[in-house]
Amino acid sequence: MNERHIVTSFDRDLEGIQATVIKMGGLVEVALSDAAKALKAHDVELAEKVRKGDRQVDAFDQSIKTDSARLLALRSPTAGDLRTVLTVMEISSHLERCGDYAKNIAKRTIAMAGSGDIDDSLSALGRMARFVEAMIKDSLDAYIQRDAEKAAEIIERDLEADQIYNTLFRSLLTHMMEDHRNITVGMHLHFIAKNIERVGDHATGIAEQTIYLVTGELPEDDRPKQDKTSLAFQESDE
Prior knowledge:
The protein has 238 residues and is mostly helical. The chain is built from 6 helices and no strands. The longest helix is centred in the N-terminal third of the chain and has 40 residues. The N terminus and C terminus are likely disordered.
């Protein structure tokens, strides 16, 4: 009876942690969407809301890490249960970084208030944001469904996200070189694009954790990274 109680308690605690991860994922999805909307509409008020909202994402991450560590210390899970605990901790870290990128986009939007655009760069950034937002949503769905095949498809999509970023980067660089008045806003837009591209990387990381959870092995990282055009720029938002 006591052993059954321990197992039931463990399952309940683990389900609680996983529920928090899903709540955190939903919050990050909203933050990314709102950050993109604020950028497109030059909505400083919405951008400020996203910036402040990152505190809740951080709080979820801390709660997940604390509860997971306690579960590992008290229950010493093995096999599949251990993989589940390790996976939720990793996914929480990926989501926390995505929340940071949404905050960074919001901060750049606020800094750009009153500035102009470069051609259709805001529209291009919006399309890129929607692409990686879908990656995040699908990666979380794959985790919930324990769908390794769907997770593998998301990993392949990261190559396209890199290609979208590279195309946008080259366009921004061309405009900055042609007219020095574009440099300030161009740099802001570049860092926003880089933050969006990094969200795609973390969606890939979540998908890899789902594959690990289902199969017990991480996929081999044999995909060439396509983001090589911006090596001369340092990511001040990192």
